[in-house]
Amino acid sequence: MLENEKIWILQNILSNVEEHNSATLLRESLFKIINGFEPIITAAGTGIYTKSITPISEVPTEVDDKVFLVIEPGTYTNFGNVVLPEDSFGFIFKNGNSFSIQSVEMPMQDLSEIETNLSKNSANLNQITNTEIATQLDYKNFTLEAGQVDAIGGASTSVNWIKSSFDVTALRGKKVLIKGFGSHVSILNGTIPRFMQYKTTIQTANNKSSHQNDNGQMEQSVVISNDAVLLVVNIDGDTNIGADLPNSIYKTQFKIYEKIENSSISYLNVSQIKEGDRIETTQIKTIETNLVDVSNSKNKYFDGVGFPQYELGQNGDKYFDKSSKQIFIKMNGVWIRNAQFKVYPFVKPTDFTWEIPYKIFQIDNGKFFLDWKGLFVEKVKADYDRLTKYYVDNVNGLDTNNGLMPETAFKTIAYARDTIGARNIILAKGIWLFNECFKTFIDNNSISEPLIVRCLDGKAEMINGYRGSTYTWSASNGCYSTSRTNVVNVLDLTNKDENGVYQNLSKVRSIAECQLTANSWFTDGTLIYIHTRDKRVPDTNIILSFDTQNVYTAGLNVPYVYFENIVSYADNIYNALLFKNNATNQFKTKVYLKSCGGVNNSRGNGLALDNFKEAILEGCFGANMLRDALNYHTTSLSSGFSPSKILEIDCFGYNTGQGSNSETSSNGSTTHEGSTIIRLNSTFNTAKGSVIADVNAGAMSLNLGVESNEDTITDGSGASFRINGAGSKMWIYSGVGYSFNSASKSIVANTGSNAYFKDTIIPNGTEGNVIEL
């Protein structure tokens, strides 16, 4: 207990949040301590009252006999005039109308020596923001202009807009952070930041290299394309805002930064310790030693979505969770949350009956988190440490190796799975092509061990296809052709979006259109034509993909399957990455997925689960597909299967409904057959249908800190949040749901269902039985 308390106090001393005053910190610390003996007090017929009590507080009328934690010295006049001495904390015991107090003295120590050491060290410590580590670029040549760039790349002039232009030739392939947009930039009034890259300094729709629209945040990361020369950014829009550019506030407010990833820099940001902010404990000398050790070390910064990977980083490193906006610090080999925000226990609605074994907390930034150590540690690590680890490296491995170390890795997943019978497989990062992918992974009913498949230092990206360098190409009036049938998509590994997803070339309708259109392809069924975005001959970075999906099928006695950092680009009419149980009986197998994705499926879903009783997804995603990003089914419900229960944490999806003008039911995240789901901090954008849709009788959907935006259906059939089915219920807390289509609604509860919301942004209104809590 003292060790945990030492770490907690250290976290808060290092914090630079103003709200971290001593009373608040001490109270939170004491509640951590008393958690250990609260059951004893409760067993005695009382319980601990968790709200703040001061000497002038009234006795709460809603409680009977209770124990009250007090930390402010003085006479508690309404609690039998009991007295709490200075430099103490105590417990007031209420028994009927009688009160007694038990106090504990807190001896004070002089922190002057520590303050001196902190002052000496602080000059060497670099500040880290809660969002990104970055170095400001010295761009003296950027310009402010009265006007804007439109959604297709065209430029317009107007004093009611202001934009900025940057020469980004030296930043090709790098990621930049752009901050300082205007107060009028928001989704709510239709003015959004836009980032357009051009191949020359001429701003035309035909000359653009890439573009993206922001999701309404006041900062944005942008990956500079390899052929970009100019970056143009919409900054703000308002009446006459661009009329006086020489005196515009954006000359200093608007900035561009180059992101530093995995850089060796010191991580601490030490705020000045004031007399009133001191927290004295007997562990203070140990804290001082830790501070000196940290200031003398070179630590790294990481970021990602969701709880950090267990093996990532070393002691002293920091990690920023882009989803919950929290910072983690690695101490004693374990990632722990830094207390830069206040947190509050979340009490779920009484009608939502699924009890998960973890407490849910709400952060004062509107996001939520589980009181756990991450999916891998909670569910998998014990088996991962117990089972023999087998390494597979599709580039450097050999199936004649023993597979027990990265240096002696097997070459194929099939050999590790079928010949060795491996249940704990570690894949090398990088591209896994056609016969290297796992394709169909079927567990038989005799297997009783879990299946663990991980990639530790990046993503194992499964693309069912062949490299362009495999073929001989002929020039054809601006594009290149070769003989190849059955191609369903073409990817360019030199072109990634901000989430690291490789982008497809656009499929066009004729050879002539392909010849005229950069970044496109066409097939006549026998020959394939490719026009690369930089006019190069299709090479090792061009992938021709085929009709295959990657599927895991459960066995009767497998307790769970765990995949981590596996991304499938399989293009199939059904799913890019599917986990299923298609037996006549519903197996006990649970599905645990961390940082996995199904993407670029022009004919079906991204990541899909079917017929499992329970699943937990952490940081998983789907992008650029015809149907749903994350799709959950219990298709054998009529055979006696139970509807699925899904815990979805820090997941995201975008660009569903791609490739079809007639698609109207693609979703970001969707459950079927009356499933139950909890979503924490998930974000889904741009769907041709309801962005989040939970359907069929009995569906239960609890959405916490979820953003569901931009349904692109114009006929009014879309929504940001939709619940449908007799007796179905949906709750939305601290969410966001908007659409540019005036016909769409933020929340829709179809006939027979109910939706409830609290502290949620819903500019498009509601439809059906929707109730504000």
Structural write-up:
The model is unreliable at 1-23, 36-45, 120-136, 186-191 and 260-296 (pLDDT under 50). The protein has nine helices and 64 strands. 11% of the residues lie in helices and 36% in strands. Strands 25-26-29-41-44-47-50-53-56-59-62-64 form a twelve-stranded parallel sheet, with helices on both faces. A ten-stranded parallel sheet has the order 28-40-43-46-49-52-55-58-61-63, with no helix packed on it. The chain is mainly beta and 773 residues long.
Describe the largest sheet: 12 strands, parallel
Quickly count the helices: 9
Inertia-based shape: globular
Tell me the strand order in the biggest sheet: 25-26-29-41-44-47-50-53-56-59-62-64
Beta fraction of the residues? 35-45%
Give start-end ranges of low-pLDDT stretches. Answer: 1-23, 36-45, 120-136, 186-191, 260-296
SSE class: mainly beta
Q: What distance separates the N and C termini?
A: 38 Å
Helical fraction: 10-25%
Question: Care to count the β-strands?
Answer: 64
- Mean pLDDT comes to 80
Work out the radius of gyration. 28 Å
Secondary structure: elements and pairs:
Elements: H1 2-14, H2 22-34, H3 38-43, E1 48-49, E2 67-70, E3 74-76, E4 82-84, E5 88-95, E6 98-105, H4 112-122, E7 134-136, E8 143-145, E9 147-149, E10 155-157, E11 161-167, E12 175-179, E13 194-198, E14 208-213, E15 219-223, E16 230-237, H5 250-253, E17 255-259, H6 284-295, E18 301-304, E19 318-321, E20 326-331, E21 334-337, E22 343-345, E23 360-363, E24 368-370, H7 375-386, E25 390-392, H8 413-419, E26 424-427, E27 430-433, E28 440-442, E29 451-455, E30 460-463, E31 465-467, E32 474-476, E33 479-483, E34 489-496, E35 502-504, E36 506-507, H9 511-516, E37 520-523, E38 527-531, E39 542-545, E40 550-553, E41 560-564, E42 566-568, E43 575-580, E44 590-594, E45 597-599, E46 605-610, E47 614-618, E48 621-625, E49 630-633, E50 645-649, E51 652-656, E52 669-671, E53 676-680, E54 683-687, E55 692-695, E56 700-704, E57 707-711, E58 719-724, E59 729-733, E60 736-738, E61 745-749, E62 754-758, E63 766-768, E64 770-772
Parallel strand pairs: 1-2, 18-19, 25-26, 26-29, 27-30, 28-40, 29-41, 30-42, 36-37, 40-43, 41-44, 42-45, 43-46, 44-47, 45-48, 46-49, 47-50, 48-51, 49-52, 50-53, 51-54, 52-55, 53-56, 54-57, 55-58, 56-59, 57-60, 58-61, 59-62, 61-63, 62-64
Antiparallel strand pairs: 2-5, 3-4, 5-6, 7-17, 8-11, 9-10, 11-16, 12-15, 12-17, 13-14, 13-16, 19-20, 20-21, 22-23, 23-24, 31-39, 32-33, 33-38, 34-35, 34-39, 37-38
Helix pairs in contact: 1-2, 4-6
